[in-house]
From TrEMBL:
This is Heme exporter protein B. It is a multi-pass membrane protein. It is found in: Cell inner membrane. It comes from Methylobacterium pseudosasicola. The chain crosses the membrane at residues 21-41, 47-68, 103-123, 129-154, 161-186, 192-218. One of its GO terms (molecular function) is heme transmembrane transporter activity. Coiled coil: none annotated. One of its GO terms (biological process) is cytochrome c biosynthetic process. Keywords: Cell inner membrane, Cell membrane, Cytochrome c-type biogenesis, Membrane, Transmembrane, Transmembrane helix, Transport. Belongs to the CcmB/CycW/HelB family. InterPro entries: Cyt_c_biogenesis_CcmB, Cyt_c_CcmB_bac. The keyword Metal-binding does not apply. Required for the export of heme to the periplasm for the biogenesis of c-type cytochromes.
């Protein structure tokens, strides 16, 4: 089963690279948000540095939604999902593989690029490193939560807006603790590891619940 899951991850990564995928588009969208917000707030560097982690996290949440509606929809349309469901691999394993591929092409590049984009919001080195670490710990939760909405809207054409309405409220806890952890690293009253541990716990919960819920949603039309 492990080999089948790894093969499915490799397949989705190849497809993402061949089509141009949502990963590059998410990264561009992430850059656009981070670049435009300073123009709206003005030249106050102290304000930018104070809310910089929140800007990066909000941009990451919104960028994760790019292409998320196609996570299962493309396979639903061409019949690939039916073939995968008939395979000996549990549907939960298929969901896990596809979400992992989505995070590798979307969440991971956002986390790795966040220190560079942090320069646009006047973050210092400590804040950049802390924000990148929180994004590494928290963006998988966004992908798993999004997978539930993607599974529910897999049979709906142009269900991107419905998907956003479904999953954005569920992403708020990860957003809150991600920003709290990043701000705690720069002199907050709460130790950095406390909100980071909560964020990691949210990711683990989302991985388990999101995988099971997405698989159940894919089985539901049957």
């Amino acid at each position: 089963m492990t080999r089948a899951i790894l093969a499915l991850i490799a397949r989705d990564l190849r497809l993402a690279g061949r089509v141009g995928g949502s990963g590059a588009l998410s990264l561009v969208f992430f850059l656009m948000i981070v670049a435009l917000v300073p123009f709206a707030l003005g030249p106050d560097l102290n304000l930018l540095s104070r809310i910089g982690p929140a800007i990066l996290w909000l941009a990451a949440v919104l960028s994760t939604l790019i292409g998320l509606d196609r996570l299962f929809q493309a396979d639903e349309e061409d019949g690939s999902l039916d073939l995968m469901s008939a395979a000996p691999v549990p549907l939960e394993g298929i969901v896990l593989a596809k979400v992992t591929a989505h995070w590798l092409t979307t969440g991971l590049p956002l986390a790795l690029a966040s220190p560079l984009f942090g320069l646009l919001v006047a973050l210092d080195g400590t804040a950049m490193g802390a924000t990148a670490l929180t994004l590494l710990a928290g963006t998988p939760a966004l992908s798993f939560i999004g997978a539930v909405g993607a599974a529910l809207t897999a049979s709906i054409r142009r269900g991107g807006l419905i998907l956003a309405v479904l999953v954005l409220p569920l992403m708020i806890p990860s957003l809150i603790f991600g920003v709290s952890a990043a701000q705690a690293a720069t002199g907050g009253t709460v130790p950095f590891l406390v909100p980071l541990a909560v964020l990691a716990a949210l990711t683990l919960i989302a991985a388990v619940v999101g995988t099971l819920a997405a698989a159940a949603a894919l089985r539901w039309p049957e």
